């Protein structure tokens, strides 16, 4: 049971800062990159998780907080590798990007994606509450709402970012680019006989590799699949699957339905 909500929130905030310092000590640790900073941050991550986890794990969970902390720390080098590809995708995908440092310092996508990837590790480790707190912090700071349960491949870039929503059971392949206002959401919510929502089912779409989704597009449904190499135009509303290599564009004048143009 959480002893103090205020102190718990402070601990989670500190955990996020320390985890980011492990990955990029020269940005989140101090003014100079230093191996000792990363090591100190690792120690603090371990200590924080040993305090946080007993407050959120079920009494009969049976897992040892220290083992979960070790598993989390072991994943952080992989998280850094993925984030390095995200930074590269931002640099290569935005002609306004001057250098890597600008992306890390100024781009909301880096802020949101870096927090999401850390939170996702905790989500996979079945840590309650904490991953969602992390991604909601990113949501407040950037306007980008990525549920920690989403699965996102490498070289992921969100241009501008404001208003992007990515649901819990979404999967996204490699080399995917989203623009502002994109929603990858649920089409409807199944309910039990007593009217309560059915939880734990696939509700959000799957997006393949090398896909571009332009501003304002809405893609809904757990059975909706966007194939590899697709382009989804701005303000398109999709609730069914699209085959690989397609271009789905908005309506032209006198045409009230979207066009699905296969690039082949």
Strand order of the largest sheet: 3-6-9-12-14-15
CATH superfamily of the largest domain: serine acetyltransferase, domain 1
Radius of gyration: 20 Å
- What is the end-to-end distance? 57 Å
Could you please say which CATH topology of the largest domain applies here? serine acetyltransferase, domain 1
Principal-axes geometry comes out as globular
Q: What number of structural domains do the residues give?
A: 2
So, CATH architecture of the largest domain? Orthogonal Bundle
Q: Uncertain runs with pLDDT below 50, 5 residues or more? A: none
CATH class of the largest domain: Mainly Alpha
Tally of DSSP helical segments: 7
How many β-strands, per DSSP?
A: 15
Class from secondary-structure proportions: alpha/beta
Binned, the helix content reads: 40-55%
Give, in order, the helices and strands: HHHHHHHEEEEEEEEEEEEEEE
Q: Main sheet?
A: 6 strands, mixed
Task: Estimate the mean pLDDT confidence.
Answer: 92
Residues in β-strands, percent: 5-15%
């Amino acid at each position: 049971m959480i002893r103090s909500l205020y102190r718990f929130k402070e601990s989670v905030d500190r955990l996020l800062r320390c985890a980011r310092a492990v990955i990029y000590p020269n940005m989140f640790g101090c003014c100079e990159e230093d191996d000792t900073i990363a090591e100190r941050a690792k120690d603090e991550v371990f200590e924080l998780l040993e305090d946080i986890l007993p407050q959120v794990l079920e009494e009969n969970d049976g897992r040892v907080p220290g083992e979960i902390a070790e598993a989390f720390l072991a994943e952080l080098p992989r998280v850094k590798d993925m984030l390095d590809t995200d930074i590269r995708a931002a640099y290569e995908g935005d002609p306004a990007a001057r250098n890597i440092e600008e992306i890390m310092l100024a781009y909301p996508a880096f802020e949101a994606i870096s927090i999401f990837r850390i939170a996702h590790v905790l989500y996979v480790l079945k840590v309650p509450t904490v991953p969602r707190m992390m991604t909601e912090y990113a949501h407040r700071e950037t306007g980008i709402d990525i549920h920690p349960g989403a699965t996102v491949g490498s070289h992921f870039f969100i241009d501008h970012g404001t208003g992007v929503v990515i649901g819990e059971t979404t999967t996204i392949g490699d080399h995917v680019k989203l623009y502002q206002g994109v929603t990858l959401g649920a089409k409807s919510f199944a309910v039990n006989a007593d009217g309560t929502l059915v939880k734990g089912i696939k509700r959000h779409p799957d997006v393949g590799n090398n896909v571009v989704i332009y501003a304002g597009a809405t893609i809904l449904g757990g059975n909706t699949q966007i194939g590899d190499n697709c382009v989804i135009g701005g303000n398109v509303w999709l609730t069914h699957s699209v085959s690989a290599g397609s271009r789905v564009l908005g309506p032209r004048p006198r045409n009230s339905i979207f066009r699905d143009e296969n690039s082949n």
